[in-house]
Amino acid sequence: MVTDILQQISYGVYVVSARDKDKPTGCIANSVMQITSSPAIIAVSMHHDNHTHAVIRQSGKFAVSVLAEDSDPAIIGTFGFRSGRDTDKFAQVNSRTVEDVAVVEDACGYFVCEVVGQTETPTHTIFLGAVQKSELFGNRTPMTYAYYHAVIKGKSPKNAPTYVPAATESAKGPQAKRKFQCSVCGYVYEGEELPEDFVCPVCGVPSTRFSEI
């Protein structure tokens, strides 16, 4: 199967969150879409293995924070490449609680949804949520998945619906610079040398976790 055409479908970058008993949790998602306008129904795709998937199923509620192009890339590292089972992700970002669900403040805004239906696939559950509350934070530009790859140079978490193994990605032409890849999140640094004090802008690991590709 040629996956390149699938990568032409437009996506955003979002933090999907839910209340896990006495603490919030969440993960990065790119498959979020509006299904209807009145009432406003949102569809969110969650991998069965994600902790957030189990929490949404148990709580019946979720929130979506829409990340902006100028949102701190470390948010993607925190929510996309760590598990809420053993990490308090919201301890590392500014947030607020809305309708008992935490939302990220460094974002374009958010909407909180009550689950009104769900559809199963072999690997993911598509949750349908009726929007209960929403808010816009200023006039910021939403981050697209294309922007995330081209500008931030991040990779898809393995559980993302759009994940493509590195071996199947298309060749991009001759490499003019050396490339060093983060072993945690896949971020690629391009340059003559990788500075010893370099810290991954996506997941925050040091240069020792990079290898040349």
Quick rundown:
The protein is 11% helix and 37% strand. The protein is built from 3 helices and 12 strands. The model is unreliable at 167-173 (pLDDT under 50).
How would you sum up this structure, described in words?
The protein has 213 residues and is mostly beta strands. It is built from three helices and twelve strands, in the order E-E-E-E-H-E-H-E-E-E-E-H-E-E-E.
Q: How are the secondary structure elements laid out?
A:
Blueprint: E1 14-20, E2 23-29, E3 32-37, E4 40-47, H1 51-59, E5 61-66, H2 74-80, E6 95-98, E7 101-104, E8 109-120, E9 124-136, H3 145-152, E10 178-182, E11 188-191, E12 210-212
Antiparallel strand pairs: 1-2, 1-5, 3-4, 4-9, 5-8, 6-7, 8-9, 10-11, 10-12
Supply the key terms.
3 helices, 12 strands, 11% helix, Pnp Oxidase, Chain A, 213 residues, mainly beta, Rubrerythrin, domain 2
Q: Approximately how much beta-strand content do the residues carry?
A: 35-45%
CATH architecture of the largest domain, please?
Roll
List unreliable stretches of 5+ residues: 167-173
Distance between the termini: 25 Å
CATH fold field value of the largest domain: Pnp Oxidase, Chain A
Radius of gyration: 17 Å
- SS content category: mainly beta
H/E element sequence: EEEEHEHEEEEHEEE
Helix count, DSSP H or I runs of 4 or more residues: 3
